[in-house]
Amino acid sequence: MTDTSNEEGSISVEQRGHILLIGLNRPAKYNGYTPTMAKQLLEAYTRLDESDDLFVGVLFGHGDHFTAGLDLPKWTGRMESESDPDASAEPRVDPIALGRACRKPIVTAVQGITFTFGIEIALAGDIVIAADNCRFSQLEPARGIHATGGATIRFVQRGGWGNAMYHLLTSDEFDAQEAYRIGFVQEVVPAGTQLERAIEIAEVIAAQAPLAVQATKAASRRFVEEGFAAAVRELGPTQRRLLASEDAKEGVQSFIERRTAVFKGV
């Protein structure tokens, strides 16, 4: 009997303290992304978003590559259909953040081949750590289609118009240093250390006050999505809510007592 789980891949999930490690797990196929993996990734991101004891997510790819992108033959039917088979279900967190976005920070570790969907899901998160052997490409126009996972938006947001058009319209392949130059990745590290470094950063974030971290991400997203005035309008009300939290009291008390704060997310 054929092992369809190996054919379709899976998403590994591991909780370490307040951090959720989420892994693309189809290494024999360069973590080519399938509908089965998509469903499991939705579930993992929703768990991260809704669990009070999870503060930060770390996304990574098993094996030598992050992902070669969508396994197109498995997606063609869905792309041609105007209906979403899961549309009637209660909205879950969208990993590419075009729908319901995750409230918690996400640090992504990428290595090797990081094509199309791989770039899009990395840019949908918050911080990207790249191995120095990364190969990036947003090559949809070379296949007769265009990117629908956020690349046409986030390339411009992160890299500016010229850099975005340079890479989007040529379907070229670029390396980790170019990704760093245009702001797609925040650090370039030796291959094999990218996940360790991503976890280190996640641990630093997880040690901050969770409600304040989430409010900070929300405020920045509000500026990007709604503009300057909307972002400014919410600064005061959000700060007042944070000041009423137990974590804010702990932050002040730890400062007075000259000790490390212990935050609980309340």
From TrEMBL:
Record-linked Gene3D superfamilies: 2-enoyl-CoA Hydratase, Chain A, domain 1 (3.90.226.10), Lyase 2-enoyl-coa Hydratase, Chain A, domain 2 (1.10.12.10)
SUPFAM superfamilies hit by this protein: ClpP/crotonase (SSF52096)
Signal peptide from the UniProt entry: none
Pfam families: ECH_1
Superkingdom of source: Bacteria
UniProt cross-references to CDD domains, sorted A to Z: crotonase-like
PANTHER family: ENOYL-COA HYDRATASE (PTHR43802), IP11341P-RELATED (PTHR43802:SF1)
Similarity comment text for this entry: Belongs to the enoyl-CoA hydratase/isomerase family.
Protein name: Crotonase/enoyl-CoA hydratase family protein
